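Structure first, sequence second, as always.
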């Protein structure tokens, strides 16, 4: 197992290298000049040239990229012009807020998706199976920002049972229950798309497992159907579902950009959205890079767990 983990860990190096290269190229393509953003339009030509020299913008692209890479290795993601602080510090201070809605969203998506998928697979082509299929199509085709606004309209403005924005109440807020109350709609919005994907994968994997010889043998021996489903079939159907859950955990972080913007939730996503508006390139680059690193780490953990539960992977 350690040899496999070491091999997979080495494979992460070119992936992360590619991510930094993509982020750097993106910063060169997007419109706007970092000097204009930092100094404004009223700066003199001398000040502009001095800042360009300080930022290394007069160097060729290869040297600029090597300088960018060297700063990243030292933990320097650049200076946020919006907050006047190191971009990494701004992002890390907001990472906890994103985790508050991302982890419950993963749990909700996994529990609801596995339950709905296995429930539908027990009676394929029945009414409930078709109902789950329609619901899955509805959730996968619905943009998360639109779902968020609909939930705000229904539960926040019409029935007034949930807050419509922010992370805590202005007066007397900040406690666990208050934050949890504010997180209900963002979590539901963030989890919706993943629920559909996990449900679809669970249903397909369960149908394949339920058609196996050992399941037919178990049924022919008179073992109760509930024990066949949850004691034998569901466990063997889980490996591909676990992989999908791991991938969805990474996608939820990137999906937080839209969700946090809709609900004004002060996480990494909202900071990145504001960075786009204010052309805060360092903060935007840092946010993308941080999410990509977390995504890669999550996939590494999923691969290790997959190999642990399925030893055939180690041989491959």
């Amino acid at each position: 197992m350690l040899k496999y983990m070491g091999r997979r860990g080495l494979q992460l190096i070119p992936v992360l290298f590619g991510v930094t290269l993509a982020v750097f190229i993106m910063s060169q393509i997007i419109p706007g000049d970092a000097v204009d953003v930092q100094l404004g339009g009223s700066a003199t030509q001398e000040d502009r040239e001095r800042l360009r020299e300080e930022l290394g913008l007069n160097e060729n692209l290869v040297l600029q990229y090597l300088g960018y890479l060297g700063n990243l290795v030292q933990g320097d993601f650049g200076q946020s012009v919006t907050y006047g602080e190191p971009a990494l510090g701004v992002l890390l201070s907001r990472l906890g807020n994103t985790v508050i809605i991302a982890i419950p969203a993963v749990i909700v998506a996994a529990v609801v998706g596995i339950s709905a998928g296995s429930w539908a697979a027990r009676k394929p082509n029945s009414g409930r199976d078709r109902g789950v299929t329609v619901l899955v199509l509805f959730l996968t085709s619905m943009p998360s920002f639109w779902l968020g606004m609909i939930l705000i309209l229904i539960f926040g403005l019409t029935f007034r049972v949930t807050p419509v924005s922010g992370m805590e109440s202005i007066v007397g807020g900040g406690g666990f229950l208050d934050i949890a109350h504010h997180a209900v709609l963002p979590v539901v919005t963030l989890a919706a798309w993943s629920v559909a994907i996990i449900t679809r994968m669970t249903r397909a994997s369960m149908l394949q497992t339920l058609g196996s010889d050992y399941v037919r043998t178990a049924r022919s021996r008179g073992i109760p159907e509930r024990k066949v489903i949850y004691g034998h079939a569901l466990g063997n159907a889980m490996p591909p579902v676990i992989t999908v859950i791991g991938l969805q955990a990474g996608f939820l972080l990137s999906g937080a950009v839209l969700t946090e913007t809709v609900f004004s939730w002060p996480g990494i996503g909202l900071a990145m959205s504001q960075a786009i508006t204010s052309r805060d390139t360092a903060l935007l680059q840092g946010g993308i890079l941080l999410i990509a690193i977390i995504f890669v780490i999550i996939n590494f953990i999923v691969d290790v767990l997959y190999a642990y539960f399925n030893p055939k992977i180690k041989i491959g």
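Margin note: The chain has two domains: 1-86, 91-309.
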